[in-house]
Amino acid sequence: MINFQLLRDDFPILQRTNRDRPLIYLDSSASSQKPQAVIDAITHYHANEHANIHRGVYELSERASIRHENVREKIKSYINAKHSREIIFVRGTTEAINLVAQTYGRSHFKAGDEIIISMMEHHSNLVPWQMIAKEAGAVLRVIPVTEAGELDLAELQKLISPRSKFIAIAHASNVLGTINPIKEIVKLAHAQKIPVLVDGAQAFPHQTVDVQDLDCDFYAFSSHKAYGPTGIGVLFGKTQLLENMPPYHGGGGMIASVRFANTTYAPVPQKFEAGTPDMAGVVGFGAALDYLQNIGMNNIIAHEKKLLDYASEKLSEISGLRIIGHAQHKLGVISFVLTGIHPHDIGTVLDHEGIAVRAGHHCAMPLMERFQVPATVRVSFGLYNTHEEIDALVSAIHLAKRLFA
Ligand code: ALA
Q1: Which protein residue's CA is at the shortest distance from atom 1 of ligand 1?
Q2: What is the pLDDT of residues 86-103, one digit of tens each?
Q3: Which of the listed residues 27, 95, 97, 122 should we mutate to test ligand 1's pocket, taking the one with most ligand atoms within 8 A of CB?
Q4: Which CATH number fits the domain 4-30+296-403, given the four candidates 3.30.870.10, 1.10.3720.10, 3.90.1150.10, 3.50.30.80?
Q5: Predicted confidence (pLDDT) per residue in 178-219, tens digit
Q6: What is the C-alpha separation between 327 and 330, in angstroms, rounded?
């Protein structure tokens, strides 16, 4: 039995204040806080282990290289990829998606092709496709979202046609918390030989991810939302696809041989990892995964579900408050609007009570349009949140109502 209250002590920042109030951090969807184990691993790496990897002939470099590749192996096991070469280190989810759009997309999409995304995509799983579509003369097709905040799969079936060349879809919505039926979508897509990229930025820190079970072709995620450091993330891709894609960035580390007349490229994953990587970030990400594995994802899911249920119930009791998104399967994310008060004003009142939430369009402007709201307040949970913090949130919302009455 995990004592989640005790786990709070692992996160030094939770002892801090926000506007002179004890910090109540309800913005883990934007970025999670870091446990001491991750901070220590990064510091230890810099103090004792740092050297450039895959380049040095000396012990320190060799050890740093082994450490780096061990984390790749760890991530491979964590998401149940078939091969560690299917794990490509990138700066984060955004870079992973841009990589696929610019390499797979540029080499495959032609005029008239269709790329299917959904109405609940974060801009990072929308704009890269829009950019490549414009370049190739391809068209974006959009899966609608129901009033409950779920994907309309009947509409997806209608959208799929011989023109469909790619599907890019969020595993979970950063605004609604909806967990999408990825396996079902992949099945529909693969029946027509359409590859699927999954934006796992939100789901990866809060769900078990098994890429072989999902059978997706690409899966993108970031470390910083999963209790690891910023600036590092992963693109998983099936070997055969990765091998047939042109490189993304050119530079050191991604070549087999270079002549002025011609350059040949290194095998995957190195082909996609030009330049000195974020070695400290990789070490920190590895420590974050150890931390998550020690707690156990099933325990985390159960804990966050309790927080979601409790908060949904308490927030629903507030008159004038409308929760946007009532999907059957949800992460610990709640977006809401309050009659007569702009979300930014609510955010400001909460801030002065020590409560950190996100207010705005959440990089999902088309979804705001869908629900006809300019913005929402978004509360998102991490494994360190408590029921008492939700009570404080509810009191602060009542305060905002009184202030703006
Ligand atoms: N994608 C992050 C969020 O939803 C930044 O807040």
Answers
A1: 30
A2: 999 999 999 999 999 999
A3: 122
A4: 3.90.1150.10
A5: 999 999 999 999 999 999 999 999 999 999 999 999 999 999
A6: 6
